[in-house]
Structures are given as C-alpha cells and as structure tokens.
Amino acid sequence: MTRIFILNGHPAETSLNKAMSLSYARTAEAHGHEVRILHLHDLDFDIDHGYAGYTEVKPLEPDLNSFFNNLEWCEHFVMTTPMWWGGLPGKLKGLFDRALLPGKAFDTRNTKMGMPAPMLKGRSGRVIVTADTPKFLMWLLYSNAMLRQTERQILGFIGLKPVKSSFFAAASHPKPTTVKRWLTQIGKLAAKAT
Which helix (H) or strand (E) holds 53? Predict the structure, then answer.
C-alpha cells in the first residue's frame, strides 16, 4: 500500500483534469492504496507572495497548510494540470510559490554546488498534463520546457524522485473514445501507484 496525494491543478470546477484526478483516485483506492485528493478550485489563498524575498513571509492560509501537510504525508504525489501558454495555470504556480518555502521544502543553509538541499526526499511523483500542443511539437519547438519545469525545477528541486510525466493532447475537445482511452491509461498508472 502506498500513501498517494493527488492534486487536481485545474482552477475550474469541472475539467478533464478533474476527471483524470478522480479516476486515478478511484483506481488507486480500489488497489489498496491510501489516497488524499485536493482540487485547486476548492482552495482559498492569495497567490501573490506579497514580498520581494523570504525575509517577510506572508502567513500561510489554512488551505496552503493543508496542501503542504498532504505533501509531507504522501509517498507518491500526483498532479494533473492543463498547459496554458506553455506553463502552469497562474493559481497553481501561486500555490507552489506560496507553499514551498525555504526551511520547509528546501534548505538554503545547506547547499551543494550552490543549490539548496531538498527537504521532501523519499517521495516519487507523477505529473499528468493536458494540452493542445502535440507531444512531438512540445519536444521539437519548446524542448519540453513545462515538463522539465514541473519534473525538475519544482518537484525535483524539493526532493521528489523520480518524477515522471504523462502528456495528453489534443485536450480541448477530445472525442469521448479518446477520453475513455486516456482514463484507462491513468488507471494503469494508479493501480501501480506510478
């Protein structure tokens, strides 16, 4: 049994990302894994860090504390997110900006080659991305920038390893048969907690 924390990173109340996160949760629970899930649209917090550095840290709202506590609790973190303008939705990026703080997620006093030490080691991750850009163009035109950002610069930076991605496109108006196939793929990942 694996402790899995799922974050639906789509800011709308209904979305393909929400369907994917719920499908992953149901399948993982059916295979004996312990699951917690949060939906970005339910979380109430100010996305603005508010200050120019970490010297005056804005107190975390209860929903940000809940997110971070679930991240500490889990052994495997799963995030579903759309790709908008080549990156994460603003509210999702704001969640990371506000909740992943020095002294909690990374240690700036303990560095190696100038990089802060990650503080959330011992966890793996899966990023499930929906987009309209075909996967081969993500690689060819954009060097998989968003995937590298989420895998390495956010989740890897705080210690999650390995972090793998699943990419689903074209996601704006997929056929029902396509969505069914995608949900089947997600179910296979969930059954193995990968």
Answer: none
HSE at residue 129, side-chain half, CA atoms within 13 A, is 27
E strand residue ranges, 32-122: 34-39, 76-82, 106-112, 115-118
Q: Are 91 and 47 in contact (CB under 8 A)?
A: yes
**51 three-state secondary structure:** coil
Provide the residue range defining the domain that includes 73.
3-192
> In this structure, are residues 71 and 40 in contact, taking their beta carbons and an 8 Å threshold?
no
Instruction: Count Cβ atoms below 10 Å from residue 51 Cβ, excluding itself.
Output: 10
Number of folded domains that form the chain = 1
pLDDT digits (tens, 9 = 90+) for 42-69: 999 999 877 656 677 788 999 999 999 9
Q: Are residues 67 and 100 in contact, defined by beta-carbon separation less than 8 angstroms? A: no
Residue 126 contacts residue 163 (beta carbons within 8 Å): yes
pTM score > 0.85 for this model?
A: yes
Per DSSP, 161 falls in state: -
CA distance 43 to 100: 16
CATH number at residue 173: 3.40.50.360
